[in-house]
């Protein structure tokens, strides 16, 4: 008998029943937790597992050694309608332990209890020592063919598509820490190329704190929480961090980037990525060039304000994760262009006087333009976070033919560290066989056995040379596309623990970065230093860091010193004479508004037809409109996503007001009036707070109809970026235009020039 037939019939019946309960409140919006809306009552009819959501992807179903199985990605998940043990025996009850009578002791023979609890006891693995907090997505990379002259890497060929998995992360915090802390962000990409996996393990900042890998434990120990109290979590605003960077002054350039708006990105979708080190590329003719990798986001580089970042730490600690997944689910697929700065491979390994082996230095784009070589689109969220995002293992030594390393001492140390760390984190040497880590190229290594071995290796001769396995595996010949280390000449030199003299310049590029900022960006940097140093306990550390700032720029130093109430010291080295690099500034252009979140305040008396039109227009333009109302459910026939109680300004990029809602029953107008909210007795105080915060964070605000009254009550009418319009359509058009500059920058009067 075909046992799948009744199961299929049951499944169809249940699916159509479930679809009928479609959630009327959120028809088009991302964030639904499952692929089918739940029923109010607990489902009791047996059925197959739910299908994944439409935007979810999963690692390809290759074997541990790279062969296609032909199975769908869902084959990784559970099978069948019934609960079973790990061995596949069906279970009748998983809610009660096996006991000697209802009031008796639990029996040792309860193998189901023991299996369930034992497995649970071992669910956690060690979190990453750095970059523990992260989020990832699947995507596809398409080569432009423009890199052919400099590298033979086949995945860069014109039109060649390669599957990728990207993991974004913060550096310092634990796995459960907030997304929006001030920190460097990781941007690690696994390209599953036909010639072996290529991992571009990058950051959103183009330089690093240290020049030699041997200092990595030092900088991380300094940045992590203090060892005695284990505070503060996921931040650099504390004594040990500033103690280290003010003494180890090569960290000053990276630290300046951290204190800039780059330390608080608006979204992973709005970050640049940098390979940091100089790599060596080799073309089909064997010619070499030096190169730096860059990711350029289609949406531009944008940041949160510090106040938004702090509020989000409490209001939505998953802000960046949610933003990435919601954007993918809504079809606003995040996109980047991969580019390279190509630099001649000279014996000195310098360019325009910049030492290319020094990872604390960047090459200004004005001197070496970034040439686009391909496009990355993230279009699938993971199906299972642990299996994919937690278990993905990157390694800068995963290189395809055509890309090689240089002697950058930071990169050299990383080539050891990444392989080493996975042994404990993923429990043994076979982590490359975990689905998300499996190469898409055929694997024929001679690595055998070890914990969690998934491959069933045939043959008797995993060694070379052999005759018993017919000589297999064979080394690839010259024409067979092997990875060949570029035979770079190593100069004869004494063995030393020392840096080249050029590595001694610690301040010139920090100054270059400072001088390249617009006034408002400079002001943010001043505020960040003042905040972070202000949180240090010891004055000596503040004073020492001010000495570093004096060597970068006297005005920066003076402003921070004023905020700290300390005298500004004199420089101890001559100020570097450097030309600014305008491309380092985030301001001054227009970008697409895809996936931006628009809050729309409504109440039952508002122009609901107009709101419906704006909502449709926003969805059509790729934005995410969220209706904010006095209560949940519907207003008119419009679904409500946020109430005045659940909304906070920081989750919106812009606000529209269609009505002037009176205080809802759960409002506290008297308390809010005491706290200074303008006119909170006629307009709900939480709506006033929304407007005031959006204004304070320089966000576009538009209103029509009753909404115009709210602007008046909040006292913001007629200020830059606040639009009073005749209709919803006009208000939306104006706000959308303002969004293309990210913020209404005129609203931030910068005190620094
Ligand atoms: Fe990493 N780094 N790193 N790093 N790094 C790790 O590897 C290390 C450095 C970066 O999402 C660890 O699997 C050393 C620079 C990213 O899984 C570890 C040094 C850059 C990620 C490690 C550096 C990075 C890591 C921790 C100094 C930018 C997250 C867990 C020589 C170019 C990858 C792991 C992910 C993760 C070591 C410096 C980027 C311990 C020793 C420079 C994006 O192996």
Which SSEs are present, and which pair or pack?
Layout: H1 4-20, E1 56-57, H2 111-121, E2 134-143, E3 161-170, E4 185-193, E5 196-203, H3 216-223, H4 239-247, H5 252-259, E6 273-274, E7 279-282, E8 288-297, H6 306-315, H7 319-329, E9 335-343, E10 350-351, E11 354-355, E12 371-382, H8 385-390, E13 403-404, H9 409-425, H10 508-515, H11 519-534, H12 539-552, H13 554-564, E14 597-601, H14 608-620, E15 624-629, E16 634-635, E17 638-639, E18 642-643, E19 654-657, H15 669-674, H16 685-696, E20 700-703, H17 707-714, E21 722-724, H18 728-739
Parallel strand pairs: 1-12, 14-15, 14-19, 15-18, 19-20, 20-21
Antiparallel strand pairs: 2-3, 2-12, 3-4, 4-5, 6-8, 7-8, 7-13, 8-9, 9-12, 10-11, 16-17
Helix pairs in contact: 3-4, 4-12, 5-10, 11-13, 12-13, 16-17
What are its keywords?
six-stranded parallel sheet, globular, binds CIS-heme D hydroxychlorin gamma-spirolactone 17R, 18S
How would you concisely characterize the structure shown here?
The chain is built from 18 helices and 21 strands.
Describe it:
The chain is an alpha/beta fold. The protein contains 18 helices and 21 strands. The chain has helices spanning 4-20, 111-121, 216-223, 239-247, 252-259, 306-315, 319-329, 385-390, 409-425, 508-515, 519-534, 539-552, 554-564, 608-620, 669-674, 685-696, 707-714, 728-739; strands at residues 56-57, 134-143, 161-170, 185-193, 196-203, 273-274, 279-282, 288-297, 335-343, 350-351, 354-355, 371-382, 403-404, 597-601, 624-629, 634-635, 638-639, 642-643, 654-657, 700-703, 722-724. Helix 4 crosses helix 12 (539-552). Residues 1-7 and 17-22 have low confidence and may be disordered. Bound molecules: CIS-heme D hydroxychlorin gamma-spirolactone 17R, 18S. CIS-heme D hydroxychlorin gamma-spirolactone 17R, 18S binds next to strand 3, strand 4, strand 5 and helix 9.
């Amino acid at each position: 008998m075909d046992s799948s037939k009744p199961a299929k019939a049951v499944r169809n019946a249940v699916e159509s029943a479930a679809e009928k309960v479609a959630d009327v409140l959120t028809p088009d919006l991302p964030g639904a937790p499952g692929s089918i809306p739940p029923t109010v009552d607990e489902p009791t009819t047996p059925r197959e597992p739910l299908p994944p959501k439409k935007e979810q992807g999963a690692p390809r179903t290759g074997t541990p050694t790279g062969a296609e199985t032909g199975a769908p990605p869902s084959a990784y998940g559970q099978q069948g309608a019934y609960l079973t043990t790990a061995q596949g025996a069906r279970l009748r009850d998983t809610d009660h332990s096996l006991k000697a009578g209802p009031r008796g002791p639990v029996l040792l023979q309860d193998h189901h209890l023991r299996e369930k609890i034992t497995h649970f006891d071992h669910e956690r693995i060690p979190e990453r020592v750095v970059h523990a907090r992260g989020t990832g997505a699947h995507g596809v990379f398409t080569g432009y063919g423009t890199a052919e002259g400099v590298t033979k890497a086949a995945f860069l060929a014109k039109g060649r598509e390669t599957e990728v998995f990207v993991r974004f992360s913060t550096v310092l915090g634990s796995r459960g820490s907030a997304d929006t802390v001030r920190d460097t962000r990781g941007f690690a990409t696994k390209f599953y190329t036909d010639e072996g996996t290529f991992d571009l393990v990058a950051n959103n900042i183009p330089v690093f704190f240290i020049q030699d890998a041997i200092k990595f434990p030092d900088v991380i120990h300094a940045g992590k929480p203090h060892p005695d109290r284990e505070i503060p979590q996921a931040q650099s605003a504390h004594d040990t961090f500033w103690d280290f960077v003010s003494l180890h002054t090569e960290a000053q350039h990276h630290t300046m980037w951290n204190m800039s708006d780059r330390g608080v990105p608006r979204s992973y979708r709005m970050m640049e990525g940098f390979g940091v080190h100089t790599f060596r590329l080799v073309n089909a003719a064997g010619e070499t060039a030096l190169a730096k990798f860059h990711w350029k986001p289609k949406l531009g580089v944008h940041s949160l304000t510090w106040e938004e970042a702090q509020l989000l730490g409490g209001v939505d600690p998953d802000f960046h994760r949610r933003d990435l997944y919601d954007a993918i689910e809504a079809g606003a697929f995040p996109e980047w262009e991969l580019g390279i700065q190509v630099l001649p491979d000279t014996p000195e390994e310098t360019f325009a006087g910049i030492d290319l082996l020094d990872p604390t230095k960047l090459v200004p784009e004005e001197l070496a333009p970034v040439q686009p070589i391909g496009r990355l689109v993230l279009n699938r969220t993971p199906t299972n976070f642990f299996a994919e995002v937690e278990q993905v293992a990157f390694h800068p030594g995963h290189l395809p033919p055509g890309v090689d390393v240089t002697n950058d001492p930071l990169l050299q140390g990383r080539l050891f560290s990444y392989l080493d760390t996975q042994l404990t984190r993923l429990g043994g040497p076979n982590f490359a066989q975990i689905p998300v880590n499996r190469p898409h190229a055929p694997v024929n290594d001679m690595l055998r056995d070890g914990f969690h071995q998934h491959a069933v290796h045939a043959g008797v001769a995993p060694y070379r040379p052999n005759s018993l396995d017919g000589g297999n595996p064979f080394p690839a010949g010259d024409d067979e596309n092997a990875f060949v280390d570029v035979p770079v000449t190593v100069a004869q030199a004494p063995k030393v623990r020392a840096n080249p003299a050029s590595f001694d310049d610690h301040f010139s590029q920090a100054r270059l970065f400072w001088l390249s900022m617009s006034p408002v960006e400079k002001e943010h940097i001043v505020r960040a230093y003042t905040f972070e140093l202000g949180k240090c306990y010891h004055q000596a550390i503040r004073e020492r860091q001010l000495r570093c700032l004096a060597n970068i720029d006297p005005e920066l130093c003076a402003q921070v010193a004023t905020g700290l109430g300390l005298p500004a010291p004199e420089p101890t080295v001559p100020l570097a004479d450097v030309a600014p690099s305008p491309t380092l500034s985030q301001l001054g252009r227009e970008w697409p508004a895809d996936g931006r979140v628009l809050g729309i305040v409504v109440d039952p008396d508002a122009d609901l037809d107009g709101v419906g039109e704006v909502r449709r227009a926003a969805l059509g333009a790729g934005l995410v409109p969220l209706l904010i109302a006095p209560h949940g459910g519907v207003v008119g026939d419009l679904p409500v996503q946020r109430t005045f109680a659940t909304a906070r300004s920081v989750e919106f990029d812009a606000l529209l007001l269609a009505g002037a809602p009176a205080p809802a029953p759960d409002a506290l107008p008297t308390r809010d009036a005491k706290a200074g909210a303008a006119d909170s007795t006629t307009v709900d105080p939480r709506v006033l707070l929304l407007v005031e915060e959006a204004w304070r964070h320089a966000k576009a605000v538009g209103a029509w109809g009753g909404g115009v009254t709210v602007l008046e009550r909040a006292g913001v009418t007629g200020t830059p970026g606040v639009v009073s319009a005749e209709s919803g359509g006009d208000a939306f058009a104006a706000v959308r235009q303002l969004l293309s500059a990210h913020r209404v920058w005129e609203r931030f009067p910068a005190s620094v020039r």
